[in-house]
Amino acid sequence: MGRELSTSAATGGDARGAAPSQGSTGGDARGAAPSQGSTGGDARAATPGQGAAEEIAAEQRHLDVVYARLEVLKKEAAAVEAAGHRIARVGNYGALVERDAMVYHAARRRRLLDSEHEGLVFGRLDLRGGEIRYIGRLGLRDEHAGALVIDWRAPAAAPFYRATPVEPMRVIRRRIIQSSGERVTGVEDDLLDPAAAPPDLRVIGDGALVATLARATGTGMRDIVATIQKEQDEAIRSPALGVTWVRGGPGTGKTAVALHRAAYLLYSDRQRFAGGGVLVIGPSAVFVNYISRVLPSLGEDEATLRSLGSLVVNVEATRHDPPEVAAVKGSLRMVPLLRRAARDAVPGSPDELRLLYRGTLLRLSTRELRQLRHTVLAPGVKRNAARAKAAGYLLDALWRQAVSILGEAATPAREQFAGDVAERREFTTFMRTWWPRLRPADVLGWLADPARLNRYRRGLLEDREYSALLRPGDTDLSVQDVPLLDELDELLGSPPVPRRRPVEPFTVDGVREVTTYADRMAARRRVAVQRPADYREYAHIVVDEAQDVTPMQWRMIGRRGEYASWTVVGDPAQSAWSGDPEETRRARDEALRGRRRREYLLTTNYRNSAEIFELAASVVRRVQPDAQLPVPVRHTGVPPRDVLTGDVAAAVPQEVRRLLADVEGTVGVVSTQDTRDEVAGWLAGIPDPRLQVVNSLEAKGMEYDAVLVVEPAAIAGESAAGARTLYVALSRATQRLTTVGSDPSWR
Fold first, then answer.
1. Contact at 8 Å (CB) between 500 and 390?
2. Within a domain: residue 167?
3. Sign of torsion, CA 551 553 558 559?
4. Which of 134, 151, 406, 697 sits CB 3.0–4.6 Å from 139 for a disulfide?
């Protein structure tokens, strides 16, 4: 629906240079539609489609100028890169250094320009005084240094996100420009300052935010750089230091805020955050894949994305333990339990040491070996790093025994004795079996032994918790096992690594190749920026769905953030973690190390229609009446569909086909944890790439155009936090929601 106030300013010509914006104050952004204000001029009824077509054509003219300029800049970057290579022909060191700098920066610029093609320009601001600013994924200037596009992270772009009808920040009209490739496909406007609008200003659409969010989402998370609102933008641009804490219910854009904040920090202080690294942690591998295209689409590909099941090197866990098992593994009581395991005797290790020395049998008993092990493993000593120390203690004990049997006169000095014994096969064989190098997975496997686990858990776990933890049938690692591996890695440590001479690049069999100075310096730079696989010095860490992070997971994350600033986003009402809240708070505070916190509350649900969210909210209010729930901004007139049936397996495919026909975008099917594979089997005959089946935990943070929830009552009964998990499942849909089940009790 369009309202026409047309304007000469809407021709979409060259954007003039934009001055940095003033900061805005107060007020939640609610995505104001044009109908919220008066027209402010001689409004004329627009012929449906006519005004929009003319505005699209105007924006197309500007987009043509932008893409033409982009091609020129690409060619210039390639020319600079080629010129840099030619400089090296001068032959002196200065020319080689200059070549390095030119080639590096030109190549980086060319890569950036190549990556920013789709949706390069997505916004426009018409300001008081006739100024026009186009907002996009990177900044571009014309040959006269005029701003064609302003980078969305630049201060001059802030009004695009922060301006509201209450505080318009000089913005008269805010426009979202939709495009496909290099072609403008649509425009949607917000009229923020009707009184300042020229008489002929056109306003197209029913409000940019609501119209954008009503569209199909696609298979990966859509970045909301074009629809960020004021309360979200304040969190994105909060100071870099300390902890930015963002709370908000379903659909408030918490994940989008976190990812855009990562992109903003990389843009605003690249040396610090790209140099130290940005780590983004999500709840599941499904979620990480879902968000994986957002940062590259924002011009940033230097962040590391990990799920909680993949933070430990060479581990990729996706299976979740049952809630009662997860509650035990996530508790801080696992720390002393694992410490006991890490200090215990190795299964199958010898229970005594027997060694013949100069015709005399030297023997260390089981009790003496146990005492030696405890002596070596004093508090703070890491087992794998103490192997040499353990061997020394053994040799000391054997030498003292030799002196007591043979006498001091017949026993050589301790150093000579150690030299005689340490290289003997029986001693080295004993050391390999008594004090082997232990991997975290080895020690974690010891917990499957009932006798060992019973010994370790004394005074820590109740009988029911012991029984829950003792699950010999679970051979593959779970997501909840990963922080236990990380804890054991911390307790066991690594053996000392002998210092090695650095390998000189461009050397083969000790013979150095003929190279230029620039080649050698470039190789050294590459080595300098390479991070170890188990990197733990990130400059910034983003934790999404923080309400579900267990105390043991907070310890694991904290080890990687000793020097980091943080962005933490979550919603207590969506928590599936049923452990001790005080224990969780203590572990989280220890991970954040007392850094200053800035808190932001997101109050507007942009995802769900009011009809869908009303159902989801009714579920969570029964268990958490005081929950701070967001306010939905859209009405579709389509209520959720509830199918009660005795044949769920037959009804699910039928309802999925209905949803695929109703929406253009994605359809998510949410089941209990135990039935995910079974439900996926029911849908094997529907090979639609828009369809995805996830369990109730994998649904965290996800968004689909339509959602089908299978057996809601079973999801609610999965755990003590089952009602909150169901609340999450019911709030994943943007347009259509269907529930299929045999038990109506969840309603």
1. no
2. yes
3. positive
4. 151
Q: Are residues 79 and 207 in the same domain?
A: yes
Rounded distance, CA 566 to CA 597, Å?
9
265 and 158 within one domain: no
Residue 281 is assigned to a structural domain of this protein? yes
203 in helix, strand or coil?
strand
3-state secondary structure of 56: helix
In a domain, 468, yes or no: no
Give the Cα separation of 728 and 214 in Å (integer): 20
Give the β-pairing of 243-248 and 565-570: parallel
Same domain, 31 and 50: yes
Q: Which domain holds residue 266?
A: 230-312+534-602
- What phi, psi does 570 have (nearest 5°)? 180, 180
What residue type is 265 in one-letter code?
A: L
Q: Are residues 14 and 160 in the same domain?
A: yes
Q: What would the 3-class secondary structure string for 632-694 be?
A: EEECCCCCCEEEECCCHHHHHHHHHHHHHHHCCCCEEEEECCCCHHHHHHHCCCCCCCCEEEE
Please report the DSSP string for 57-79 in residue order.
HHHHHHHHHHHHHHHHHHHHHHH
Residue from 150, 156, 139, 196 nearest 173 by CA = 196
Q: Are residues 422 and 538 in the same domain?
A: no
d(CA 54, CA 66) in angstroms, rounded, equals 19
Strand partners, 96: none
Segment 527-580, tens digit of pLDDT:
445 678 889 999 999 999 999 999 999 999 999 999 999 999 999 999 988 888
Please name which of 324, 133, 290, 304 lies closest in space to residue 221, comparing C-alpha atoms: 290
Q: Does one domain contain both 148 and 294? A: no
**Contacts (Cβ under 8 Å, ≥6 apart) of 312:** 440, 482, 485, 486, 489, 534, 556
- DSSP 8-state secondary structure symbol assigned to residue 478: B
Q: Is 487 helix (H, G, I), strand (E, B) or coil?
A: helix
Work out how many domains the chain is built from and give that number: 4
Nearest to 571 by CA among 601, 612, 616: 601
Instruction: Check: CB of residue 504 under 8 Å from CB of residue 523.
Output: no
Give tens-digit pLDDT for 409-454.
888 999 999 999 998 999 999 999 999 999 999 999 999 999 999 9
- Tell whether 638 is covered by a domain: yes
